[in-house]
Amino acid sequence: MTQPETEPVRPSEKQIGRIAAAAYIGTALEWYDFFLFGTTAALVFAPLFFPGDDPVLSTLSAFLSFAVGFVARPVGAVIFGHIGDRYGRRVALVATIALMGGATALIGVLPGYASAGVIAPVLLTILRAVQGAATGGEWGGATLLAIEYAAPERRGFYAAIVQQGSPTGTLLSTGAVALVSLLPRSEFLSWGWRLPYLASIVLVAVALWLRWRVEETPTFRALAARQEVERAPVLELFRRAPGRLVIGIAAYLVNNAGFFIITTFMISYATRVRELPSSVILNALTVGALGQMVGLVVSGKLADRYGSPRTVILGSVFSVVFAYPLFVVVDSGSTWLILVGYALTFGLGTIAYGPVGHLLSQLFPPRLHYSGLALSANLSGVIAGFMPALATWMLTRSGNASWGPASLYALIAVISLVGSIVAARIVRSSA
Fold first, then answer.
1. CATH code of domain 13-430
2. pTM
3. Are 271 and 281 in contact (CB under 8 A)?
4. How far is Cα 81 from Cα 63, in angstroms, rounded to an integer?
5. What angle do CA 294, 206, 145 make, to 5 degrees?
6. How far is the C-alpha of 125 from the C-alpha of 114, rounded, in Å?
7. pLDDT digits (tens, 9 = 90+) for 412-424
8. In angstroms, rounded to a whole number, what is the distance separating the alpha carbons of residues 395 and 381?
9. What tens digit of pLDDT does each residue of 332-360 get?
10. CA–CA dist 370, 377 (Å, integer)
């Protein structure tokens, strides 16, 4: 189904590096905004926006608000997939980051339930939906910005460069929350938690400036010159490639759904159930993000040498292997074991995450690239958004034993492994 591309002469490797850096920085700041909500969901939003006598119900309410962002992501994927495939990658990417920055800054000034009543959680949920819509159009466009400039044999590597935005966003968000959480708890809940949200104003302004300076990709310019741009790319995607879309969703699932089990859910599990200091799990997430950055460098090199399909399969295998051990080390309560567990799980599991964008792009023709990537990632994101709440429910069903949420994570990893194997076979047969 993929088609050979006749494209303008590509820029030099140095110029491509600058373009990939612009895509990475914008993605990092976009994920900073999105992850910030997840980091503060249990620590801040549960007591301030969803107060109640039952802490479990309060946490579940906060996680459901968190999930709204994921429900909105396919909406953003449809909107920005249409814009990206119809009018260009650059236009869509500038719009997504402006939308995300505005929503995040407004969350930073929202009043809590105590002063505004029910309107507070309602506004929080609406702004979370706006964040989700922006994120829905971000990843696919940023990935295309990098790989559509790169030579075919280097696209796995540049796809992994863009993916560095995820651990960078994790580091920035968890680091910012860890820093303000050093304040006395009353001050942290009163005003300290707002500072990381307000800082988004400056960060997004930088990302907007960088993206505005990048020209449209050679692939899209070639499509426009040949008048091969689809009028309704999303409808065409569902008409011509629904099966490949399902495979793309499955292949991407562990990178989305699994991630939020071992981050957002784990913050609640470690602090509420295992009664560990919040600093232990936040530090583990920081170490995990560093491990992820190393793993992404490795995955990019593996993708260039052995191909993106094989590399994604390898990373999915690691995710299956580490599903239960990570929960075992958290249950141990040992700070050092937890740090090592997160470094290994993120570092090895993320090998699938690096070139998955390149793998997915090969499932769809160039004129449907943006829509195909965006919907594959963000329809899996709908499932991902409910993972913290579902993992919490699994935990209660298992009597607060970690095998419940660990089994959920293992199941997701197996689905992604199967999806990546099928995707790899399709790509080989289409070559």
1. 1.20.1250.20
2. 0.82
3. yes
4. 27
5. 60
6. 17
7. 999 999 999 999 9
8. 21
9. 989 999 999 999 999 998 999 999 999 99
10. 11
Is the Cβ–Cβ distance between 388 and 268 less than 8 Å? Answer: yes
* Amino acid letter, 273: V
Secondary structure, 3-state, the chain: CCCCCCCCCCCCHHHHHHHHHHHHHHHHHHHHHHHHHHHHHHHHHHHHHCCCCCHHHHHHHHHHHHHHHHHHHHHHHHHHHHHHHHCCHHHHHHHHHHHHHHHHHHHCCCCCHHHHCCHHHHHHHHHHHHHHHHHHHHHHHHHHHHHCCCCHHHHHHHHHHHHCHHHHHHHHHHHHHHHHCCCCHHHHHHHHCHHHHHCHHHHHHHHHHHHHCCCCCHHHHHHHHCCCCCCCHHHHHHHHCHHHHHHHHHHHHHHHHHHHHHHHHHHHHHHHHCCCCHHHHHHHHHHHHHHHHHHHHHHHHHHHHHCHHHHHHHHHHHHHHCHHHHHHHHHHCCHHHHHHHHHHHHHHHCCCCCCHHHHHHCCCCHHHHHHHHHHHHHHHHHHHHCHHHHHHHHHHHCCCCCHHHHHHHHHHHHHHHHHHHHHHHHHHHHC
User: Which residues are CB-neighbours of 248 under 8 A, at least 6 positions away?
Assistant: 360, 363, 372, 373, 375, 376, 377, 419, 423
Please give the single-letter amino acid code of residue 421.
Answer: I
Closest CA to 427 of 310, 337, 335: 310
Which tokens hold the place of 181? 């959480």
Give pLDDT tens digits for 356-402. 999 999 999 889 999 999 999 999 988 887 888 899 999 998 888 88
Tokens of 130: 């706006």
Q: Which residues contact 206 (CB under 8 A, 6 or more apart)?
A: 25, 29
Hey, how many other C-beta atoms are within 10 angstroms of the C-beta on 131? 27
Burial 230-241 (b: 16+ CB within 10 A, else e): beebbebbeeeb
